[in-house]
Amino acid sequence: MTKNTHDADVTFIEALAKLLHDNDLTELQVKREYGEDDSLNVRVSRAAPAAAPIQVAAPAPAAAAPAASPAPAAAAEADTSDPANHPGAVASPMVGTVYMQAEPGAPSFISVGDSVSEGDTLLIVEAMKTMNHIPAPRSGKVTRILVGDGDPVEFGSPLVILE
């Protein structure tokens, strides 16, 4: 590889890092083909920001202990209020753009209340000009759709809740 190609690659990688930062992405992967036996594979990623520290209240006096029994139910409810923690969440397998139908003007693949079978297409995530059909991982009923047509998504973002 010549020095000019090396310098161009460094500039390209720096541009990818800037794109990652400017669009608040966590990961970006690109393959650049130079010839039959010459290519550049680049994966730029960064750690997700650390969660804010959780503040814990001081323990209640012993007399209030029986009233604390509903707390486990409240904690379980808090876990499912975040769609990413919901047991029926279908996560995005890649970074891309969501499309709810096969082509403009066509009916959506799913609507809230629809029953789907394992393997049915829920939506499409476009990544690098490739349309990736996202299948239902199990049969169930669509209770929430967490993304809209044309929305950008990141790897692991919750897309749909199936119950």
From TrEMBL:
Keywords: Biotin, Fatty acid biosynthesis, Fatty acid metabolism, Lipid biosynthesis, Lipid metabolism. The keyword Lyase does not apply. Residues 64-89 are annotated as: Disordered. InterPro entries: AcCoA_biotinCC, Biotin_BS, Biotin_Carboxyl_Carrier/Decarb, Biotin_lipoyl, Single_hybrid_motif. Residues 87-163 form the Lipoyl-binding domain. Residues 64-78 have a biased composition (Low complexity). One of its GO terms (cellular component) is acetyl-CoA carboxylase complex. One of its GO terms (biological process) is fatty acid biosynthetic process. GO terms for molecular function: acetyl-CoA carboxylase activity. Pfam families: Biotin_lipoyl. Pathway: Lipid metabolism; fatty acid biosynthesis. The keyword Transport does not apply. NCBIfam families: BCCP. This protein is a component of the acetyl coenzyme A carboxylase complex; first, biotin carboxylase catalyzes the carboxylation of the carrier protein and then the transcarboxylase transfers the carboxyl group to form malonyl-CoA. This is Biotin carboxyl carrier protein of acetyl-CoA carboxylase. It comes from Marinovum algicola.
